[in-house]
Design a protein that fits this description.
Layout lengths: L3 H27 L3 E3 L12 H4 L4 H6 L8 E3 L10 H4 L3 H5 L15 H4 L3 H7 L33 H9 L11 E2 L2 H4 L21 H4 L22 E4 L2 E4 L7 H4 L13 E2 L8
Parallel strand pairs: 1-2
Antiparallel strand pairs: 3-6, 4-5
Length: about 280
Amino acid sequence: MLTPLRRIFKPWVLIAAVSAWSLFAVACMTAQRTLVAPPQIAGAKFVGSKQCAQCHDELVAKFGTATHAKLSADTGLPDGTGCEACHGPGSLHVNAGGGAGTIINPKKSPETCFQCHLDKRGQFSLPNSHPVMSGKISCGDCHDPHEGNAIKGTGADMEAQNETCTRCHTAQRGPFVFEHAAMKEGCTVCHNPHGTVNAKMLVARDANLCLRCHLERPGVPGAGEINANAVRSAVVGGVKVASSENHNTRLMQGTCWSAGCHEEVHGSNDQYHFRP
């Protein structure tokens, strides 16, 4: 039987535990921002996004929808999230009434983006990549840091992603009478836009890229490797692949899109096999 003291103490323990758990849950739900170290400008101080809105009202108004709005910069201001997380402290820019050299423009250099996206610095340094490091294009040409999802065309909106790529790669835009189904999934199914060790920024080299999707093997016993003693050849996703007894095939000599085979890999207007 509980003593009077224990009868009083037990409910307070329960209340304290529930309160502590509630505070923890609220902290988890509200602390969804990533703390970043903003770029620095010699002699400049942080002024807050309200100052930026005096001239850039349209950008500031829609910034709340942006992926980057979840960033929180160590500015020492109550509204640490905002323009200065990526553009640096803006006092000199405000005092000068704008102008180049008083604020950081990430479009001129990817170094601001690399402060958070360290992996992309490495990818852009690979043998085959978009010329971001040389300054010929910028991260902002493909990403919008001010509104919506910074990665365009994600989720079900894959057509927008292709449109981002085909603004420059117009020959691959189409429409085609016979479209490669991979185009419906998006360019990044076959290409890594930041860079790879493979030619044309492909995510895999040679026929291995095609075989990531074209794995069907009708007519071959079982689901394992091709048995050269059992069959002379097999069909792999519509591509005739000879057994190990016959090394003199087009696929052995090159890739699926070379040697006069499926060269029009993005689509064709007269060949459903994507041949030239």
